[in-house]
Amino acid sequence: MQVSLRHSYYNASGNLCPDFAVTPTQESIDLMASLGLLFQQESTGFSVLLDRNQGRNVASGHSSCRVLSYLRAQSRRPSLPEGAWTRLSFTLATKNSMFVNFTSMPIGTSASTGAYYLSNAAVKQSASGEYYLHRGPLKKGTLPLTGPQYPVILQDRAIRQVVAKDVSGKVVICQPAYWWSTTPAGACASPPFDLPAGNGPCCPGPAPDEPGVIWRNPIYLDFSGLPEGKYAIDECDDPEECQPAHSRPEVLYVYSAPSPMFFIDLFFAQPPGVSTGVYPIDPAAGTITPTQYFLDFTHRSTTWNYYIVSTGMPLTDLRIEAASSAPHSVSFTGPSTVTLPNGQRASHFVSDERIALEEQPACRFQLKGKAGGVKTKDGVLMNRLPVASAQQVIPRQPDYATSSTNGSGQSSTSLKNYSDIYVYI
Question: Coil, strand or helix: which one is 210?
């Protein structure tokens, strides 16, 4: 399996995205070692490699392939969903502090609070046959990150238990909402769930009306014995069968550092009951198909503000025009005369449309006009205006640089993403 990262911002580098450090989870490291698989970090993605000799065995019809043998053995276990949902998991942490600035995604996205979850169970195929874990702008949809202890504050006393389910829907944590103040001798001698120690013996616990019962609130779910990954948290009011009365947002349990911006699950084979996705292994047929997935990002586009400041002769008849060789023409409204917070007067131009932030900008602009009332050759005062930097993208009101709030951006409810460019001539 291979995951390749691409980003339209890097238009001068073949759209290859070098901005992420990829780390397999510890459970995945152990599993790959036992199956003879090799993880390989690449400059713009990563690969999981199968030993060449195992590949020959598959091609020749021999059964001595550890991956196939493992998956077939898992499918015969009583806990079928656990075995059939066998996967490798990876965290992707950004190495570029400007990534959010130049990527089409919510500008306030922070890896310290949440991460995007992706998997090959939700792969989309393009018209050209490529398989995409994601393609296009990233919308709101990060999952909150949690460490080993996840607190659940209950709002409803009818809730009998709180459970966490893994990606297959299997209950892996169960905690009762009610408990005896003094546990009766022999109570709950054997848990009804096959769960990690400390995650819910006696679940769902005593009934609320039993004598000596207390309400446990908040309830702490202990993820420390579980693999890193995505978990659904449900509050249940049925003590026999947990039908969620209240569902909470899914969470990502991670202990990897630094905090990831993406968490990827790659399932070996198609899980039961799942009709979507693209998988490299078919255990029943005994085939392994090398599979490449793409994670494609889209550049951010912003409204460009040019502030032209004269450092010498007065400038008149100013206008911004696209250079004749530019492939795309963008017009500007202006100029209007504004006073900057430092007291300087400036001619202000605003682009009539949003312009892409790119490694090598496709747009090129000239400043034309007169200096001291004299028209230069072809009227060009500056042949190539500077372009917007990915280091400065701020959601704010249009008059950010000249507002009485000194650029605090607190006085307007209509915010856009702007790039400011100051030109002294």
Answer: coil
- Give the separation between CA 125 and CA 123, rounded to whole angstroms: 7
pLDDT tens for 370-421 read: 988 887 778 899 999 999 999 888 787 655 555 544 443 343 445 789 999 9
Residue/partner pairs of 377-386 with CB below 8 Å, 24 or more apart: 379/317, 381/315, 381/318, 381/425, 382/423, 382/425, 383/323, 384/323, 385/306, 385/320, 385/421, 385/423, 386/421, 386/423
Given a contact cutoff of 8 angstroms between Cβ atoms, the answer to whether 90 and 227 are in contact is: no
Where do we find the tokens 């009332």?
A: 373
Query: Residue 394: what pLDDT?
Result: 78
Q: Where are the domains of the chain?
A: 2-144+255-297, 149-253, 301-424
Asked if the model's pLDDT at residue 200 lies above 50, the reply is: no
Model pTM above 0.85: yes
Q: Which pLDDT tens digit goes with each residue over 292-330?
A: 999 999 999 999 999 999 998 999 999 999 887 666 679
Task: State how far the Cα of 349 lies from the Cα of 319, in Å rounded to an integer.
Answer: 8
**What single string gives the DSSP state of each residue in 68-109?**
HHHHHHHHTSSSHHHHHT-EEEEEEEES-TTHHHHBSS-TT-
